[in-house]
């Protein structure tokens, strides 16, 4: 907010200097306006960077959760395949008590 005020004041000085023919006041106003605009741009860039950082962090957490979920599914599938293989082996071995 302060930067917007400084930008407006710089613009006013620049305009007043132009109207009065005072090049010093006009230059001073232009410099103040430019400095305020640069600070506004810097603050916006910083905010954008913070937003991107937050978004990246969120995406990392989302990806970690998806990987964890997928690992759980694969672990369950492997466990089920192991149990099925054990059952198949057990079922393929003849039971000595059945042959009597």
Q: Using DSSP, what is the number of strands?
A: 0
What general form does the structure show?
A: rod-shaped
Q: Tally the helices: what do you get? A: 2
Q: What class would the helix/strand composition place it in?
A: mainly alpha
Task: Catalogue the unreliable spans.
Answer: none
Q: What characterizes the major β-sheet?
A: none
Supply the number of structural domains.
1
Oligomerization state of this entry?
A: single chain
N to C succession of SSEs:
HH
Mean pLDDT: 92
- Rounded to the nearest angstrom, the distance between the terminal CA atoms is 95 Å
Helix coverage percent: over 70%
Computed CA radius of gyration, to the nearest angstrom: 36 Å
Strand content: under 5%
Summary keywords:
CsbD-like domain-containing protein, mainly alpha, 100 residues, single chain
Describe this structure in a few short sentences.
By secondary structure, this protein is an all-alpha fold. The chain contains two helices and no strands.
What does this structure look like?
- The chain is an all-alpha fold.
- The protein has one domain.
- Helix content is 89%, strand content 0%.
- The protein contains two helices and no strands.
- α1 runs antiparallel to α2.
- The chain is rod-shaped.
- The mean pLDDT is 92.
